[in-house]
Here is the input.
Amino acid sequence: MKVIANLGRKGGSGKTMTSHLLAHGLSKGYGLPVNVVMTDVREDTPMNFHPDRSYFLSPITNKDIKSDLEALDRIFVQTQKIPDSVLIIDGGANRANVDRAFAQLADFIMIPVACGEEDVKVAEADFWGLLQCLKESNANGDVCVIRNRWPGSGRGHERLLNKAYIKNFLAKGERTGMFFPDFIPDMPSLLDMANSNDPKTTPLIDAVACRFAEVVARKVGIDLPPRQKLIHYPTASEIKAQKAARKAAGEQSTQAA
Ligand SMILES: Nc1ncnc2c1ncn2[C@@H]1O[C@H](COP(=O)(O)OP(=O)(O)OP(=O)(O)O)[C@@H](O)[C@H]1O
Ligand SMILES: [Mg+2]
Here is the structure.
């Protein structure tokens, strides 16, 4: 089993989205058994995350650190029994102590960061804090900052690169090896993944999820089996045939009545 944790104090940085994107890529794309531990369960959390998903969800209560860790320990032991499984921990905002405890269990920790000034400041501090914690506890995990929702190319990208705090952040990142090698694009359709009423995933989401899963797997040392045939999207002629079949069935039942 490998354990991957998405952590960081900044709210809305993309911890949950990154957890589900990775889980989707590893499970749907490569058939690995994946369990996402939701450690930040709130009333408004869509528990029915991605109805088309092929991974497990294990919510924990978020009551106090002791019972959270006990629950995580139980899930850890259960998931460990499943060969080649991956446990993904979805952290919560503003919980530095909990993050440190979770980090010690993880093989790989990702801190998602958006491109605002405050975002990069907090992510950098989290990176050093967690690195220090891993050192002090003799844990073997690796930690990195992953750029989420950064403009990947074009004018937005150019504008961003001209900002002093970004220049500074990127230079430090290059020097220290802080960054995950890949970006997660700003992609509103990723929101489909969190929409409990919409079982759709698009080929674009599948492609982004699989590519992301590949890069993470390489970093963490997960051997990926050959990629599975992804969800089948009906072609225009199949949709036409389905419609015709539905119409014919409707006409038959009207005649019978
Ligand atoms: N790459 C992205 N493209 C588009 N939308 C995104 C992306 N990443 C995150 N979002 C959206 O931004 C919002 C915040 O993301 P998310 O819930 O994953 O953050 P979080 O770090 O888990 O927040 P919290 O700290 O509150 O748990 C969500 O609506 C999410 O769908
Ligand atoms: Mg979250």
